[in-house]
Amino acid sequence: MIDRVLVADDEESLRTVLGMLLRREGYEVTTVEDGFQALEALESSSYSILLTDLRMPNLDGMSLLRRVVQRWPQMPVIILTAHGNVDTAVEALKVGAFDFIAKGC
């Protein structure tokens, strides 16, 4: 079975690069540009993991994380952000994130 990855990020270039890299490794990838689209994708299909940006329009990554933890508590969620700090990382991990990764500048 191929693992399915959902990538939520408002930066189109990052979605494209992450999708390409993950597909090259054999994953099936769906990309969306905000938290609401991520929730719609999660409702309509199953995924092995969610990679999400922290700052997105409409529904941000922390709010998305809270909803995913409530609805799909076993799903690993990795927060990717260029705007993180230690307090935000600690909060995300306490809420239930699997990991918190700072994007390179």
Key words describing this protein structure:
alpha/beta, 105 residues, 4 helices, 23% strand, five-stranded parallel sheet
In brief:
The protein is α/β, with parallel strands linked by helices. It has 4 helices and 5 strands. The protein is globular, with a radius of gyration of 13 Å.
Fold and architecture overview:
This protein has 105 residues and is α/β, with parallel strands linked by helices. It has four helices and five strands. It has helices at 12-24, 35-44, 61-71, 86-95, and strands at residues 4-8, 28-32, 49-53, 77-81, 99-102. Helix 4 (86-95) links the parallel strand 4 and strand 5 (99-102). 28% of the residues are buried. The mean pLDDT is 92.
Which structural class best describes the helix and strand composition? alpha/beta
Give the averaged pLDDT, no decimals.
92
Estimate the helix proportion, in percent: 40-55%
Secondary-structure element string: EHEHEHEHE
Strand order of the largest sheet: 2-1-3-4-5
Gap between N and C termini = 35 Å
The shape, in one word, is: globular
- Count of DSSP helices? 4
**Taking Cα atoms only, what radius of gyration do you get, to the nearest Å?**
13 Å
Biggest sheet statistics:
5 strands, parallel
Question: How many strands in all?
Answer: 5
